[in-house]
Design goal:
The complex is a heterodimer of chains A (332) and B (404).
Chain A (H helix, E strand, L loop, with lengths): L7 E3 H15 L3 E5 L15 H5 L4 E3 L4 H13 L3 E6 L9 H8 L2 H4 L9 E6 L14 H4 L6 E3 L4 H6 L1 H6 L4 E6 L6 E3 L13 E4 L4 E5 L2 H15 L4 E5 L2 E3 L3 H11 L2 E8 L4 H13 L8 E5 L8 H7 L3 H9 L7
Parallel strand pairs in A: 2-3, 2-4, 4-5, 5-7, 6-7, 10-11, 10-13, 13-14
Antiparallel strand pairs in A: 1-8, 6-12, 9-11
Helix pairs in contact in A: 3-4, 9-13, 10-11
Chain B lengths: L1 E4 L9 E7 L6 E2 L4 E7 L2 E6 L4 E6 L6 E3 L3 E6 L2 H9 L6 E4 L5 E4 L16 H9 L18 H12 L1 H17 L5 H18 L2 E9 L1 H12 L9 H15 L5 E4 L2 E4 L5 E3 L1 E2 L5 E2 L2 E2 L7 H17 L4 H5 L3 E5 L18 E5 L3 E7 L2 E15 L5 H16 L5
Parallel strand pairs in B: 14-18, 18-19
Antiparallel strand pairs in B: 1-8, 2-4, 2-7, 3-6, 4-5, 6-8, 9-10, 11-21, 12-13, 14-17, 15-16, 19-21, 20-21
Helix pairs in contact in B: 2-3, 3-4, 7-8, 7-10
The chains are: A alpha/beta (332), B alpha+beta (404).
């Protein structure tokens, strides 16, 4: 293998490299959002990009999510390829009208005359003691909306490789980056490679139970799988990667093999993406199931501020392990 | 007081008809006494008590259909006696098959387990139990609240059937489930492709053909059908299924499976009948124990099976059990059909269209309804002589349809 082919980079660096590549390749691409320029991004993702690309392409916006998201959508309709950064999913609620009422439907309401090729990057997730207004995981909620494509990169390769195809997609794509993953490092070389944005991926093969998850849940589930392996239970980890449209085929073929499914999601159970996945499995694979579909999700409370309470409210590796072990009839 | 309930005689059984009581209220009964007779899918079955006592009440009426687990009679006994009886283990079912084919099954009067359809078992466990012909009522569940899971069914099957049979049945079930993904016509096409390729690759086929004069058979059907409503008439395929089943009782070598380089002759004669689906592809449900059923029973089952096959509601037991297959192209079909054996079966009987033809009868040429019957045989399992004998027996059956 090429000597420079492997190096360790962070998820943050991967997102930044992907944006830089895209901007170098296509002059229609620009980045706009709160603090993306001078401050280098709330999570340091766009650090140095203002210096590299200038004020015309790295645009600091006022604190007005509805306004600048709308600008991004308009620019996309007019032929640009904007990347709109919304600091966290909590603030995206202010832009929800633009995203849901405009971006998702314009193609349909214009009889196919206007595509909206906007990419909106949104930080998501809890666990950083930022309390109820700053700790939500609402990606599953956006996955409810026809007309949107919802990406949830868990790995560095996806954080890097998904942006290109997202920009090429003629329709609006939302990319949810879990804030706890920005510091996650792995061996990767940003060499312009892209990945698909259609299929879920098996991150670990197993035969006794399918753990279906995305984002930070993939990392917790991989750890859980290691612990379960010590007890002789072989867990398969399905990284959904894309929450809309869901890749039924990969989910179903995994569950058909293992006959057991656990859905892990930081979001809440009620009306969540976990509910949708569990329903699909029971609709299509009822006769293949050897025990009821289980869910390990965020506790149904606004995120607590106190560290121990917040940790207790989020699905943890131990919770996943416990839940899998209590599934009836599991081998091991 | 003890409740005598309708016993469960298999996971398929949900109810049975009480044919007659052999006792009346006030009669004293001893453990082992036959107290009545029920009519089930398995045939007439004698029911036996497993405790001493006195019949205090007969709740079920003769002729009544009673769900499994429902109280049929109350048996009174003294308390000590009852307590002792309750502590005893539930006796295992004893199954005897008499030579004339009538089954006599004795079952416990005090079946402690809940009836199967009320039992907690995972959907997969139920499916595996059907595939492996395991009575869920006998499996001990390892899950919460005694829920039965797949591994419990497998463990039970391994223990009771032995490793070899267990493996064979698993393999058969796999073929079947591959062949019956009725929901996805594309994958059905692929599984037919897989099964048929395997057949042509592995099975050295030999083919035999005979032409059968169907005059007697058609006359017989006409005679039966004259008195019947259109939807109750017996059509030729029903007679053919029965005739094949009867012929197989005389030439059992063609009834069974070739697995692990050995021929396994099966006792049960389950006639698979290829049904083509409108959306393409085909399924092969089986008439179970066709040799033991009357023409009317086969007719009812056959009609029901065709309906359900087209709707995609076949039971896995029906599609996993065939021991031989019939393919018949029907009234408008081709004159002859030389089929491909469905592995691991070892024979396939093909029927063409029944059409009038000139043939020689008693030294004269006459126009008779003629049926071409072919046999595709697995030359590893049998030789042409056996196949020929089978066709001869089949012909005999159809020349004497009143005996069929």
């Amino acid at each position: 293998m090429n000597k420079i082919a492997q190096q360790t980079i962070t998820y943050r660096q991967a997102v930044r490299d992907a944006m830089r590549e895209a901007m170098k390749k296509d002059e229609r691409v620009f980045l706009m959002g709160e603090d993306v320029g001078r401050y280098g991004g709330c999570f340091n993702v766009s650090e140095g990009m203002l210096q590299e690309f200038g004020e015309d392409r790295i645009i600091d916006t006022p604190l007005s999510e509805s306004g600048f998201t709308g600008c991004g959508i308009g620019a996309a309709v007019a032929g640009m390829r904007p990347i709109v950064e919304i600091m966290t999913v909590n603030f995206s609620l202010l832009a929800a009208d633009q995203i849901i009422n405009t971006a998702a439907v314009l193609k349909y309401m214009s009889g196919g005359q206007f595509n909206v090729p906007v990419v909106i990057r949104i930080a998501t997730g809890g666990g950083k003691q930022l309390a109820a207004q700053h700790s939500r995981s609402l990606e599953g909620w956006y996955a409810h909306i026809p007309g949107l494509k919802i990406l949830t990169p868990a790995m560095v390769e996806d954080a890097y490789g998904m942006l290109g195809p997202a920009l090429e997609d003629p329709d609006p794509v939302l990319i949810f980056e879990n804030t706890l993953l920005y510091n996650y490092e792995s061996e990767f070389f940003s060499n312009g490679t892209t990945v698909d944005i259609d299929r879920a991926k098996i991150r670990r093969e197993g035969s006794d139970v399918s753990i279906i998850t995305y984002g930070i849940g993939v990392h917790k589930s991989l750890k859980a799988a290691e612990q379960l392996a010590k007890d002789g239970i072989s867990a398969e980890i399905v990284d959904l990667r894309i929450l809309r449209p869901l890749d039924n085929e990969t989910i179903f073929s995994s569950v058909r093999k293992t006959s057991r499914a656990v859905v892990v999601d930081e979001g809440w159970h009620s009306g969540g993406i976990s509910a949708e996945i569990a329903a699909r499995i029971t609709e299509d694979l009822f006769y293949d199931l050897d025990s009821p579909v289980e869910r390990v999700c965020g506790a149904e409370v606004p995120a607590p501020y106190a560290k121990h309470l917040e940790q207790a409210s989020l699905p943890q590796t131990e919770d996943i392990v416990k839940r899998v072990k209590k599934m009836g009839g599991i081998y091991g | 007081m003890g409740d005598f309930v309708m016993p469960s005689l298999g996971s398929q059984m949900i109810e049975a008809k009480l044919v007659q009581w052999h006792v009346k209220p006030g009669d004293k009964v001893k453990k082992g006494d036959i107290i009545g007779e029920i009519d089930t899918e398995k045939g007439l079955i004698d029911i036996e008590v497993f405790e001493d006592g006195t019949i205090t009440e007969l709740r079920a009426k003769e002729g009544e259909t009673i769900p499994v687990g429902s109280v049929m009679a109350i048996i009174g006994g003294d308390k000590e006696h009852k307590a002792a009886a309750q502590q005893k283990e539930v006796p295992a079912e004893e199954k005897k098959i008499k030579k004339n084919g009538k089954q006599e099954v004795t079952v416990s009067a005090r079946e402690k387990r809940p009836p199967v359809h009320r039992m907690k078992a995972s959907p997969l466990a139920r499916r595996v139990a059907e595939d492996l012909h395991v009575d869920l009522g006998k499996v001990k569940g390892s899950g919460p609240e005694g829920t039965i899971h797949k591994k419990d069914v497998e463990a039970y099957a391994r223990e009771t059937k032995g490793e070899e049979t267990f493996k064979k049945e698993i393999e058969m079930a796999a073929h079947v489930s591959a062949a019956t993904e009725a929901k996805a016509p594309k994958s059905m096409r692929q599984s037919i492709a897989a099964a048929m390729s395997r057949s042509n690759r592995e099975i050295p086929h030999y083919y035999l053909e005979t032409e059968i004069d169907m005059t007697a058979a058609m006359d017989r059907l006409e005679e039966i059908n004259r008195k019947r409503a259109v939807n109750e008439r017996i059509l030729p395929p029903v007679l053919l299924i029965k005739a094949v089943a009867n012929a197989l009782t005389e030439v059992p070598e063609l009834n069974g499976f070739w697995t692990d380089e050995v021929m396994h002759v099966e006792e049960g004669i389950h006639i698979g009948f290829a049904i083509s689906l409108r959306q393409g592809g085909l399924v092969i449900p089986a008439v179970l124990n066709a040799d033991m059923k009357s023409l009317d029973e086969i007719r009812t089952e056959f009609v029901d099976m065709i309906m359900r096959a087209r709707e995609g509601h076949l039971k896995s037991r029906e599609i996993s059990s065939a021991t031989i297959t019939i393919t018949s192209l029907g009234e408008r079909g081709a004159e002859k059909v030389f089929g491909v054996i469905y592995p691991p079966q070892v024979a396939l009987v093909g029927f063409g269209r029944i059409s009038p033809k000139p043939i020689v009868v008693d030294g004269l040429i006459g126009i008779r309804p003629v049926l071409s019957a072919t046999l595709a045989g697995d030359h590893r399992a049998t030789d042409g002589h056996t196949g020929s004998r089978f066709l001869e027996k089949l012909n005999e059956q159809l020349q004497h349809p009143e005996k069929v």
